[in-house]
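hey can u check if this looks right to u? its 219 residues, i copy pasted from the old doc so theres a chance i mangled smth
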Amino acid sequence: MRYQARNKTQLAARLALDIPEGAYVNLGIGMPTLVANHIPAGREVILQSENGILGMGPAPVEGLEDYDLVNAGKQPITLLPGGAFFHQADSFAMMRGGHLDIAVLGAFQVSATGDLANWSTGDPQAIPSVGGAMDLAIGAKAAWVMMDLLNKNNVSKVVERCTYPLTGVSCIKRIYTDLATLECSPQGLRLIDTVEGLSHMELERLVGLPITEAGAMTR
């Protein structure tokens, strides 16, 4: 049976399902911002943006954007009742002080034990910009990654050891990808789920690492 990767909308919806009621969540720049559009109806989740916003809602309807109200990626957002915006220094105090339950981040690489590389590929032509990624990676109670499993060269972004400059060490708990959801642990990767039709053997071939079967204990 052939499998089909989740598109970005499906991946955002998959991740949103796992965010618990009442959680305070930072959505990183890029793909993670899509999660705001897929919080299950009736579930209260308080979304934070590092530029100083608490209580973000879904993206605005086209034509009703307010470009004085944007997230950290400069995308227009909505503000839910009770939401607030404030100085960025207060936002970073929130991030560094352990007040966020979950941070959802993009990544260039994630190791099997949860090391994160998401701010630089080491390319001398690139402009390095770590932003608040390091603060979020170690400041949130749990850090999750949302990304495609394979890069543009069809090489796994989940690796045994990161070769790019690190953002944080052993900080990532879960990896949500277009093909599978994985848990990182000191013992390596554990499978949470895959897209329909993708076998465990094929997933291990794509990643190039052993992955403990779903439901098995890793700790």
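The longest helix spans residues 8-17.
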